[in-house]
Each structure stands twice: as C-alpha cells, then as structure tokens.
Write a structure and sequence with these properties.
heterodimer; A: 7-stranded mixed β-sheet; 12 helices; about 35% helix; B: about 400 residues; alpha/beta; two-stranded antiparallel sheet
C-alpha cells in the first residue's frame, strides 16, 4: 500500500472527492494556483479547473459565508482557513449560520460544508500560528469537530466529512503534516514513510465520524488524546513503562463515549491530554463525562495535562507544549493516587 | 498654516430630535424621469454619478415619466398595489396580535412596502433572495400563504419551523426566500456565495442580497462586496436605506460617504440609487440589475431611499429619538398612496374601489388569522412538541442529543 504524508493524504482526499462529485469545490487563501501554503491543494486547480478550486480574498468571514451560500445552493464546499488562529473573523458565520441553518429552517436549507484549518503548536509558531481552538467549536450545537492524527485517518475522515450532510470543522495538526511527533523536539523527526499509519490506500474509503481508535491497548490507565498528543502519550507510556491504554478520539463531536467508558471501566484511571489551554478546554468536558459515567469504577481523580492558561508563547515553546515528561508525570501520579 | 490646536472628536447627529420640526431640506431629490436609463452592459465607470442621484418614475401628479417608465401593464400595477396593501394590513393585524399577547414579537414594513413587493416581480422562478427581517413583501408578492406566515409568527402546531425561530424569521426555499437569521448582514455574503455557486454550476439563476442602512457597517457587507466584485457574481446587492437603524440615524453608518450606493463604486460595482417609495421605479431598477446579473455582467448595488415610518419593532418606541411627525414630512411620500394616485390617474382605479379593496383585503387577512389561530398562538392552543426541540439539528441525531432527549422525557 502506498505511503503518504498527511499533506498528501489530505490532498488525495480532496482529489478523490472532487473526482467523484462535481458538487465538491475547494477554495481559500492561496489554495488555487499556488496549491496552499502547506501544499494541501497542490495540483487540484490544474486538474479540476478554476471553477472547482480557486484563490479567495483574505477574508475568513467571506470564505465561510460564501461557502454557506454555496451549500444552500446545493454545492459541497471544502474550504480552508490558513491557520486555525485566524478563524475568529469567521466565527459568527460558523456558529450562528452554518451550525444552525438546518435547525432554524427545519431542514428547508442545509449546510454540508467542511472547514479545514491547520491547528496546534510545537512549530515555534508563536501566538497566532499555534492555537488549538477546538473547544470553541465543540461548544457549538450543530457543528461536528474532527482532529485526525495520521495520514490514513486524515484521508478517510476528510472524505467522510465532505460527504457528511452537516458542517464539519476539520482541524489538521500541522506538526503532524510531515511525520509523527512525540514531543522530543531534540530528536530527528521520523517521516510518515516509516510509519504504518502512513499507509494510505488509493481511491475512495472513509473513516466514520464519531468513532475513536485505540492506539495502544493497556490495563493500568486510560489516556484520552487527539492530534499530536496521541504520540506524546505513546512516548510517555513507553518511557514510564506504564501499561496505558491510549485512545485517539479522532472526532470530538460527536464523541465516541462508548469506547471511552469501556476503557475507563476496565482501567479505573484516566488522564486527559490536549495542547489547548486548560480552563474550559475540551478536557473539562471529557473529565465530566468520565466522572458521570465511570464514577464507581474510578480509583483515582481524573487528571488533565494541557497547555497552560496563557497565550501560546514563542521562546518558551517547550515549556508550554505538554511533552512526554509532563504526561509521564501525570500517568505516574494517577497510578500512585 | 495656523496652529491646529486640540483635536475634536466628531459624532454625527440627526438634524432633528423629538420636539423639533422635521426637516428633510438636506435631502436632494432628483425630479421624476430625470435620470437616464443606461444599457445593461454599460461600462460601470461611466455611470458613477447614478450613485448620487435618485431614479424616480412617478411624479407629483401621479404620472409615470422618463426612461424607466412603461415596463408594467395596468394589471401588473393593480396587482402590485394589492400586494402592498396586503402587506400593510398583515402588518397591522400582526402588530395588534403582538399587543394582545398572541405572540412575543413583530416587525412592520410600514412605508417600505414597495421595496420588497416590487422587487419580487423582477425575479424569475428559481432565483433566491437572502432577505433581512423587513422584506416579507417578497413572500406576499410571490403568493406564499399568509396562514403559514402567521403560523410561524404564532409558533403554533402548524409552524413550518416547529417553534424554533423568533417570529417573522421565515424560511421558504420553494419561494426563493432564504432562512432569516437574527445576526445582521450574515446573509449578504451568503447571497454572493449562492450566486457564485450558480455561476460555477453554469446555471441561469441569480441571487438577491438584502441589507439595511445600519447593517452596511457590519464587516460582512464589505466581505460581500469584495467577493461579488472579485468573482463577478450574478447577484443584486440591495441596500434598503430607511434612514434609521433602531434609534441610530443613517449618518452613523454612512459617515462621510455621500450615499450608501457610493460604497459600491470603490469595488467597481455599478451602483444605482432609487426612490424606494415608487413601485414603478423599484421594479424598473430591480429588473435592470437582475438582467445584468442574468447576462453574466456581474453584480449591481442598489440603494432604495425610503423611510421607516413605523417603530423598529414591537419592542421599540421611536418617539424617544425622532419627531413623531417625521414620516409625514418625508419627501418621497407613501408608496401605497403614490401608486394608488397613479392608477386613478390612469383611469383604472378610484377612491371607491380602493376603499372596497381595503375592506376585501382586511377580510382575507382576518380569515387567514382565524385559521392560523385555530392551530394555536404562542401561549394558547396547539404548539410544537418538546421533541421538535431536539430534532433537525443534524441530519442524524448524535448520541449525546439522544441521551438529552431521553432525559427531557420525550
């Protein structure tokens, strides 16, 4: 099976979707001729023409707002916001319009759009190239929020998102674009060609939204993670020797609660890990759900490892980013509790 | 150069406040028939002055004059008059229903009936409007059932939107009327996207975007103009300048710009300004702009100069911020009276027939109201189910919502 980077997998997902359905259109800033600042749309304009893949003005609200209008017409726009940090001007369109169109019109109009956004830190991106705003989307009724962690999932989830009849926020951890990253910034990065999840089948396949994946089976503690933190958690488990069960959530909303609850009931302990800031982050929702559903099986308080409650700094990148050492400490504390 | 001294902060003010005498002497009004009618493929650069004038057809004597006249038959004009009268009667009954506690909220169109009623007749089947909350004339003029509108206003068991939406936030794809949102200006860029989609699909349908004077200050107004200009989208960009955004006079949104129409010029979008209380002028200009869009000539911005004669909404009291008699002083008059006078002048209408039509329309509206009220009002009779609250958010209900629906006991 061919191996692809996450960038190539995402590009392939759009290529496959555009080839299968003439209603799929792709646009955003620098997305057309140039092929995107991360190369995710390279070649699509040449292959499908300017009517299907084109450059947009630098106006996030305009990109999402026009996509909503296109979806109301009957197209299936898959648009790009260059960095998740720049989605805020489109927040009104995403939360008040895209999320609610089906509900408020009782199905008279629908909004099958996908909004792709590179997300996450670990790249010396500073304050506005590192944010993880997923909690600002999971709090919005009517949106679906997806965060893939590898090329295979990225392609299958993106095709599923494009085919989904409702609006999907598709957050792409840009730190994972070229290879998995476990937080050891002092070591060379392994490319996806050396990783089994870099195997990406040709043609059409989907990874269903709302289904988590167990990346490492274990019995001592359950780790709930997504995006880059999946690899950080794996490194932390190996380095501490703790038999952790690591769940890659893949879709945050709808959430695969069954997989989470089954695991925590088995291990009796749970650590939640994300890059986003702690307070009111998505981890708080996960902790609440685990507490509600697994209270009588818990043998320790549910722990959270997250970004600090500060803007994402530049020089202090590795003091901020929750690396394997911090996650490892949390695993040990949870076992000792 | 003299010493500039301290800077002074500028805040525009309307010329008259409550207690003052209304004065519109600053409003320059072109004579009916005086503005030329260019070909639709005109070079936009050659008609920039049209953004600063006012296209008018009906003169003081009720005659249709000039190059924008002569598009509508007597029958079509009589139908237009009936639409405007129906909307006005509908408004009055629903405003009263709100006062009687049958619903929570209402917004009237008083004085602006010509804008949406006449515009609708310039569109073709399949075209899509992206209206604000003050274009219900689009539905009335397209034959959308009044009973259904009232069911929505009453949030009753027959409400097509299942009680989820605030009154008057209608939605009808079938009638080319996009779902209304409470968030101002969002629909303006969505209309441009819809038009882009029609062009991408090599379709022949066009979109119409709607916005008020106040909401042009929202950033989505700018977004829409940029996208419409860049992609030459087949869209008519309508600005209804009724002089007021709740309590805020139009000068606050307009600032130093000469007119709202002039906003289009910087985007290379041809911009027309039209007498919004002149049914014939509104229709003729809408037709011109729609034809441009349909011929792939791109977007047109149209500013309708009118006056919000009623309160902003059922929650508003305009006497707190403007003179009570200001609407009487409005120089463009009343759209219903002006079309009525024109039809009388044509010899196809009379004061007597007008009174008779008023009575007939009132009967029709009251009959619709009775039927709607048989399905319930906000606090009495049939209402949407609690289950409807959980349905229809996603195509398929996700597990967490299923659990919450069970918790709610439905």
């Amino acid at each position: 099976m061919p191996r692809r980077t996450m960038i190539e997998a995402i590009r392939d997902a759009m290529d496959v979707s555009m080839g299968r359905d003439a209603k799929v259109v792709v646009f955003g800033e620098d997305v057309g001729f140039f092929g995107g600042v991360f190369r995710c749309t390279q070649g699509l304009q040449a292959k499908y023409g300017k009517s299907r893949c084109f450059d947009a003005p630098i106006n996030e609200s305009g990109i999402v707002g026009s996509a909503i209008g296109m979806a109301a017409y009957g197209l299936k726009p898959c648009v790009e916001i260059q960095f998740a940090d720049y989605m805020y001007p489109a927040y009104d369109q995403l939360t008040q319009e895209a999320a609610r169109l089906r509900y408020r019109s009782n199905g008279d109009f629908t909004c099958p759009i996908v909004v792709r956004m590179p997300t996450g830190g670990g790249i010396f991106g500073g304050q506005t190239h590192s944010q993880s705003p997923e909690a600002l989307f999971t709090h919005v009724s009517g949106l679906k929020t997806v965060v893939p962690s590898n090329p295979h999932d990225a392609k299958g989830l993106l095709i599923a998102a494009i085919e989904d009849p409702d609006p999907v926020i598709f957050l792409e951890p840009k730190r994972l674009y070229n290879g998995p990253f476990d937080g050891h910034h002092d070591r060379p990065v392994t490319p996806w060609s050396k990783h089994e999840l870099g195997e990406v089948a040709d043609g059409h396949y989907t990874v269903p939204l709302g289904k988590a994946a167990i990346r490492r089976a274990g019995s001592a503690v359950t780790v709930l993670a997504y995006g880059t933190m999946v690899y950080v958690a794996q490194a932390a488990a190996e380095e501490t020797g703790i038999d952790a069960e690591i769940i890659d959530l893949r879709t945050l909303l709808p959430l695969d609660l069954d997989t989470i609850v089954a695991s925590v009931k088995k291990t009796g302990r749970c650590v939640v890990v994300h890059e986003a800031t702690l307070t009111s982050g998505f981890g708080a929702e996960l902790v609440a759900l685990v507490q509600e559903n697994c209270f009588y099986h818990l043998e320790a308080p549910v722990a959270r490892v997250a970004g600090w409650d500060t803007p994402y700094p530049h020089a202090q990148e590795w003091d901020y980013f929750p690396g394997p050492a911090r996650v490892g400490r949390a695993l040990m504390e949870t076992l000792e509790a | 150069m003299a010493d500039a001294g301290m800077l002074r902060f500028h805040v525009p003010e309307p010329e008259v406040r409550p207690g003052g005498t209304p004065d519109f002497s600053n409003v320059t009004i072109a004579a009916a028939g005086s503005v030329p009618r260019p070909e639709i493929d005109v070079d936009p650069r050659t008609i920039r002055d049209m953004a600063f004038s006012i296209i008018r057809v009906l003169n003081r004597n009720g005659e249709a004059v000039g190059p924008w006249a002569g598009l509508l038959s007597d029958e079509e004009l009589l139908e237009g008059l009936r639409h405007m009268m129906t909307l006005r009667t509908f408004d009055a009954r629903m405003q009263m229903a709100q006062r009687q506690g049958k619903t929570s909220f209402y917004m009237q169109h008083l004085g602006e009936e010509a804008v949406s009623c006449a515009f609708r007749k310039a569109l073709a089947p399949g075209d899509m409007n992206f209206p604000t909350y003050r274009q219900a004339g689009l539905l009335i003029a397209d034959g959308y059932p009044m009973v259904t509108m009232m069911n929505q206003i009453y949030s009753n068991e027959a409400d097509p939107l299942k009680g989820r939406q605030l009154p008057i936030m209608y939605s009808s794809k079938e009638h080319g009327f996009f779902s209304i949102s409470g968030n101002l200006a969002t629909q303006y860029i969505q209309a441009v996207g819809w038009a882009m989609a029609s062009a991408i699909s090599n379709d022949s349908r066009i979109a119409a975007a709607w916005i008020g004077d106040g909401s042009t200050a929202e950033s989505d107004f700018h977004s829409a103009l940029v996208f419409a200009s860049t992609y030459k989208a087949p869209v008519v960009l309508n600005v209804v300048n009724n002089q007021w955004a709740i309590s805020t006079f139009q000068g606050i949104a307009r600032g130093g710009s000469g007119t709202f129409a002039a906003r289009g010029l910087g985007f290379g979008i041809p911009a027309l300004r039209v007498d919004g209380n002149d049914y014939l002028a509104v229709h003729a200009v809408a037709k011109w702009a729609a034809e441009r869009a349909r011929q792939n000539l791109g977007p047109t911005l149209v500013e309708y100069v009118t006056y919000r004669a009623g309160a902003h909404s059922s929650s508003d009291d305009p006497s707190a911020y403007r003179p009570k008699t200001e609407s009487d002083a409005w120089p463009l008059g009343d759209p219903v009276v002006r079309l009525k006078n024109h039809l009388i002048r044509l010899g196809v209408w009379s004061e007597e027939r007008h009174k008779q039509a008023e009575a007939e329309i009132l009967d029709t509206v009251i009959a619709a109201q009775k039927e709607a009220e048989s399905h319930g009002t906000l606090h009495a009779g049939g209402k949407p189910s609690t289950r409807d609250m959980f349905e229809g958010l996603y195509a398929e209900m996700p597990p967490h919502l299923r659990r919450q629906r069970q918790q709610a006991g439905v």
